[in-house]
Input
Amino acid sequence: MKNLGSIHPLLARTTSDLDRRQFLKRGARAVAATAAMSSFPVGLVSRARAADSTIVVGFITSMSGPVSSLGIPYDQGIKAALAFKNQVGGKSVKLIALDDASDPTIAAVNARKLIQESNVDVIIGTAGSPGALAIATVCAETKTPLICIANANPQGEPGNWTITIPQPAPLMIAGAVAHMQQAGVKSVGYMGFADPWGDLVYNALMESTPAAGIKVTSNERYARADTSVTGQALKVFATRPDVFVGGGSGTPGALPYLALRERGYKGQFYGTPAIINPAFVKVGGAAVEGLIASTGPVVVFEQLADTNPTKAVSQEFAKALKATVPDATPNAFSGYSFDAWVLFLAAAENAIKTNAPGTPQFKLALRDALTNAREVVGSHGVYNFKPGSRYGNDERSRVLVKLEKSDWKLIS
Output
């Protein structure tokens, strides 16, 4: 096997929470996952590639592990995006895709591999917030722009090289809380991941509920890899909340809802965009029927008015997705990947006018174009970024939907 030092020469700097043996095992998994991933050819671009030959995009997602229920739709979305358009300013675009196995350490290893060995111009990734934050640190150190497709909000220098595609948690939670207030809700229970995403949802809930006269009765947490949350569910149930909000995502995000229904809880369920994917619906089954969630308009684009600015883009996305992954339908996560590509294309169109791909100058120009994007229409919303702010969405990126017979229906 290839020496891991050549993949990650700064071993000591990225393994403060792992001993060397654990890191080597994970590094071996990264190499194996990279070799096994078949969504795109994982050939490497020479580090000495001609500066003006091709724009090279690195893509990292979770095709295996506990986050794969999100990572696979992300992969489907990037396939559709590449089919939608693979040239910018007369230059072809090459995509190199790697699997991080739902492991933040592997995500960081993959980011370094893409930058050091493939000289990518930009990275798009990954499926989980912890992995995305790990990639953001690497991208800042190497001055490589990152288009983050997980809901992460890196601070300091990593934030200066990152834009985040998913809607900010406060925006989406505020929509759900407004619905609760209209329904006369007085208390809400919470259980979420014990990681940055769980924190984002809980903090957003604590910000928006006081003005609505709603009390948050619990703050239970669980790991993404957990298979049972019985203890946490009993604690939530004991507080007798009127409604419940889960702060998980994908398949693991269904656990709290299942556990509460098994305990006999009959209150209304609410969710976030992080559970709007087919795997969640399949695993949740009857327990999540009637769940209300805030999400991007792409999820129900066929139900939108023709005047909605995102509808035409969603139609293009759906067409490209059908051509590349015939059995897939647009969902929140594949839509995030597609929108990341739309923003990349718009930024590259500007950056390439005065800078050659493959150079530090092009990376910097690409970063500046991304962080200053204006009125870029995607499937989830209309994006406007400014330096110092990772998020670019406004209320045009939020709708409320209800799960009815395994389909999401627009309710506002």
